[in-house]
Fold each of these.
Amino acid sequence: MYKNQTDLKTVMLYLEQSFQKYLADKTFDNAQFVETLKTWDIIVRFARVHNCALPEILLKYLVDHDLWFEFVAVCDIFSYPKTQVRNNAD
């Protein structure tokens, strides 16, 4: 676990920014969505291990692209807190 919260926030920001660049090159068919979930799983696990808030880049991407089924699936698979789900669904 990171003892320095500034370093932890920096790493999380880097992971989310890297993932955002990854998303920019994707179109979602079933195979791509599964690959995206595998990558996202690593970022979510890192956040949980270090007691960080769960990252939201993928949720925002899904909402912005009207991918509501995928949004619900990601929220369920990764057990996002209901408040975080509602805040991102707006």
Note: The chain has five helices and no strands.
Amino acid sequence: MEAALEAFEPGLLSSSAEQPEIQIREAFSPMILLDTNICIYIINARPASVLARFKAVRMGEIGLCSVVAAELALVWQEWFSAQPPGP
């Protein structure tokens, strides 16, 4: 495993002052990837338990894949185009 990490990012596992050990742990910490439905639950704040879980996670621990981001952009565009024009 260490050889694979070193091949991926040379110097990653060195213990020099430039790359403290804490950065290694943060770089490979698990990330929560949200799907489209969960994002819509968060936007609508329903159910409340999903929003509460989202708020409990630290920034940087949540991500979206490009497909989910594109789906959300499409939903957002369709929602705005369906809204009647303002005054």
Note: The radius of gyration is 19 Å.
Amino acid sequence: MQQYIVSLTKAGRQEASKPLVRFLEHVRAMPAVEVIRIVGDPDNPKRVIMRAAEDRAADLKTRFGGHLIIEVDQELKLMQ
């Protein structure tokens, strides 16, 4: 399993139906997806940090791709 950051696209920010709230409702019912952190107000989150298998994340990208960005949360490294 990898860790992912989920955030809104420009279209998602303009949508009144709160795509991240719908996303959270969807993934909480899914096996093999773990919500680690919600950034912002739970009723109107700005970002979601989750763990999921690569294939599960790919399915979610397909389902929510027009409104959400789902990308691998990569470790930050300081430049030497």
Note: The chain has one domain: 2-72.
